[in-house]
Every structure is written in structure tokens, then in C-alpha cells.
Specification:
VAP, alpha+beta, 5-stranded mixed β-sheet, 4-stranded antiparallel β-sheet, transmembrane helix
Length: 271
């Protein structure tokens, strides 16, 4: 069983995020080999697969996933974690799902042929800014290369309005687009100013109408109060005065009352 690389090295900046490295196991024997991967920090690493079978002359890749730390690691941090790869012959087993059940039997039967490979773990701690700088430069170079390649695409000479290149507009239409954008901005500003002027004039017109209505109502209210005061305090005229005692059918009120009283007494005495 060959294992590569000889040292499991993680390059994860400050190690606050998860990172994955790979091991390659190669079966150099004439028969199938069963293997298991063990570590001194099982809560920190996730191994897939951690146990399986490798056929003769075949290889298998094992992913080692390092969980991120809650705090950035200092630059002088030394990792003491280790991995152990154990392999055994398994001539009568071809199902990796049953390996965990048959492992004690294989270990007892082929104890003399058991092979162990130890791996040391190393952390390469760098600043995140240093890691991102080369990536940004490479991305910029790729982007520039794409722009150059796309900008050389042929344009149909029969097209009177060449429009599209890779960056959205041809060089011929860029000045016109800039002028149109400037004119659009100016038009928006002028439109906004005219709208504000119209709004101010409309508000002033409504305010004048409201003031006129208020003055009209105030004048009407004052005139109504004056007419009421005149009606209340104007002395009655001679023509409107009515005598307190008006004759009833040519007979004064006292005489009529006396006649009614006499009639009542006569009726009471007679009947």
C-alpha cells in the first residue's frame, strides 16, 4: 500500500473556514486490500471514505476535510495532529459496506500482514489578504484576456448600426450614448424644475382661492350679525304698536268677561 503525499499539508489562510485536502492510496499488491483511516483529532477532521477496499493495481482518493476554527490561528501555531492508515488483505471480501463487521476477523487472521502508514499534519498559516491578492490578479488577467478576445469578434459591414461587442456597445456608439445620457440627465433636471414651478403656481392659486372664500364668508357673517342686532334693539314704531286691549266684536274685553260671568250664574241658578 502506497500513500501520497507523505505529509498532509493544509493551506487555509487563517483557518477560520473549512478546507479540504486529498490522500491517494494505491494497492501495489496482488490481492485486494481493506483499509481504515484513523486520526488523533476525529472531531476536527471529516474523512471520506474512512474505510473501503482497494483492488490490485487500483487507487482511491480520500478527502480530508478540516473544520474551520472559531478564531484565526497565530502565525507560529504548530499542528500536532496525525493520521494513521491501516491496511489488511481481504481475499474473501468484496463488499465495502460489510468491512466494519469483518474487520476484527481480518485483523485476527492477517495480523502478520497488517501495514500501517503514519502521516503528519502541517498547517501553512498566511494572511488572507496575501491569499486573495494573487487570486484577484489572476482573475483580472483572465477578465482582460476575455475582453481582448471578445473585442476582436468580426462585425458585419452590412449592418448600418454596429451595436454589440463583448462589453455591451461598439466604440462608434459610445460617444453618442454618452451624449444621449447627458441630454437625458439635463432633460430630467429641466423637467423636474418645470414640474416644481407648476406645482408652486398651482399651490399659490389654490391658496388665493381659499383666502377669497374665507374673506367672503367673514363678510357674510358680519352682515348677518348686524341685521340680527338691528332686529333685536330696534324700537317698535307707532304703526306696529298694538293696543293691549282690543275690542272683541265691538265689545271691550272687560265687558265681555262680565257678560260671560253673568250668563254662567244665570244658568247655574235656573238649572
Amino acid at each position: 500500500m502506497e500513500v501520497s503525499p507523505g505529509v498532509l499539508e493544509f493551506k487555509a489562510g487563517t483557518f477560520t473556514k473549512s478546507n479540504t485536502e486529498y490522500l491517494k492510496l494505491t494497492n501495489t499488491s496482488d490481492g485486494p486490500l481493506a483499509f481504515k483511516v484513523k486520526t488523533t483529532a476525529p472531531k476536527l477532521y471529516c474523512v471520506r471514505p474512512n474505510a473501503s477496499i482497494v483492488e490490485p493495481g487500483k487507487s482511491v482518493d480520500i478527502s480530508i476535510i478540516l473544520q474551520g476554527f472559531s478564531q484565526p490561528l497565530p502565525a507560529d501555531y504548530k499542528c500536532k495532529d496525525k493520521f494513521l492508515i491501516v491496511s489488511l488483505p481481504c481475499p474473501d471480501l468484496d463488499n465495502p459496506a460489510k468491512l466494519s463487521d469483518y474487520w476484527p476477523t481480518l485483523e485476527a487472521k492477517f495480523k502478520s500482514e497488517l501495514i500501517q502508514k503514519k502521516l503528519r499534519v502541517n498547517y501553512v498559516i498566511t494572511d488572507e489578504a496575501e491569499d486573495q491578492a494573487p487570486m484577484g490578479g489572476a482573475a483580472g488577467a483572465v477578465s482582460d484576456g476575455n475582453n481582448v478576445e471578445k473585442s476582436t469578434e468580426p462585425i458585419d459591414p452590412r449592418d448600418p448600426n454596429p451595436e454589440v461587442t463583448s462589453n455591451g456597445a461598439s466604440h462608434a456608439t459610445q460617444p453618442a450614448a454618452a451624449a444621449a445620457a447627458a441630454a437625458g440627465i439635463a432633460g430630467v433636471g429641466a423637467s423636474s424644475h418645470s414640474n416644481k414651478s407648476l406645482d408652486n403656481s398651482a399651490y399659490q392659486h389654490e391658496l388665493d382661492d381659499s383666502n377669497a372664500k374665507i374673506n367672503n364668508l367673514s363678510n357674510r357673517f358680519d352682515s348677518n350679525e348686524s341685521s340680527v342686532d338691528e332686529k333685536e334693539y330696534k324700537p317698535p314704531s307707532q304703526a306696529s304698536r298694538v293696543p293691549s286691549e282690543e275690542p272683541v266684536a265691538g265689545v271691550s274685553m272687560p265687558v265681555a268677561v262680565a257678560l260671560m260671568l253673568v250668563s254662567f250664574l244665570l244658568g247655574w241658578l235656573v238649572f
